[in-house]
Amino acid sequence: MILVSELYEVCSDVFDSTETQFHSSLNLHGKHEPIKIRHKQKIKACYLISKLYEIVPAKHKAAWREDILAHLDIQWNYYEKKYCNAHTQTPHTHHS
């Protein structure tokens, strides 16, 4: 929780949310509406996702990234273009 609180402080200019909404969104809890990315801050949101992807446990990495991108309404193609290493990481696909 401390890490998320610190991230919230650093990212307050990127997202339009309360700290509780931010925490719930990063953990993909459905209690709150998805947080909104502020105007012209989508690239920073992609950077945050790429950095958090590095610390997510290996067995959850691909699913978490796919879900957080969908939660924030960021298309994989956009993320791939804006994040320099995305081309080396293939998106995980759910089959329902």
Concise summary:
The chain has helices at residues 2-10, 19-26, 42-55, 61-71, 76-82; strands at 15-16, 36-37.
Please give the structural blueprint.
Blueprint: H1 2-10, E1 15-16, H2 19-26, E2 36-37, H3 42-55, H4 61-71, H5 76-82
Helix pairs in contact: 3-4
Note down, in words, how this protein is organized:
The chain has 96 residues and is mainly alpha-helical. It is built from 5 helices and 2 strands. Helix 3 (42-55) runs antiparallel to helix 4. It starts with a helix and ends in a 14-residue tail after the last helix.
Name the structural class.
Answer: mainly alpha
The shape, in one word, is globular
Low-confidence segments: 86-96
| Computed Rg | 13 Å
Side-by-side strand order of the widest sheet = 1-2
* Count of discrete alpha- or pi-helical segments spanning 4 or more residues: 5
Average pLDDT score = 83
Total number of strands? 2
- Classify the helix fraction into a percent range: 40-55%
Helix-strand string: HEHEHHH
* Portion in strands: under 5%
Compute the separation of the termini in Å.
32 Å
What descriptive keywords fit this protein?
single chain; mainly alpha; 5 helices; 51% helix; disordered C terminus
